[in-house]
Amino acid sequence: MDQTAYRPIPLSFDQLAPREQTANLEAFGRRMARRRTVRHYSSEEVPQALIDGAIAVAGTAPSGANLQPWRFVLVRDPDVKRQIRHAAEQEEREFYETRAPEEWLAALAPLGTDWQKPFLETAPCLIVVFRIDYTITADADGREHQTKHYYVAESVGIACGFLLAALHLAGLATLTHTPSPMGFLSAILDRPRNERPFLLIPVGYPSADAVVPTITKKGLDSIRLDV
Q: Does a structural domain hold residue 52?
């Protein structure tokens, strides 16, 4: 049988009553409105089942040609977390002190961030998301072939959104960290050349003294446009 043939199956879809649609959406909205980026973590361990469940949810995200171009690397080892922190802080310090334009630093000022990233060690686990730009296979003669993936950034971005929502709904705190450049993550975690770091997500429970910056979100009328 041709494995590349289009073989559709019936759609499984439950059309909800209008009242249930509204109730579900409002409940989800209330939960998500409380999600905050957290930089202060306790050392309390996170159950593996919660992490696995959230990653499984991320794996249901849509992707270009359904190629699912993502890898979620879970880091719990203290030594590896320390390596990641030191490498990230080296890049971040150079960014804050030499590379970042004044306009960017001004935009970051209300958030109270700097080059120091202790949360990379204090959070009980890190999820490092890699984008897989192409698949590497070998034929019977050992010759390597590459299969390109499509819409990789868009696909992995959507999967990360699923992941963050799932972790939040599981009662966990997260942060999205993108030190630039991120090549050190490939080296520390020994990832193959077809995988590139996309996002670094500390996961855990907030510390008892955790604080967050005072921020506001744009209202619906500011982000929706009727045409």
A: yes
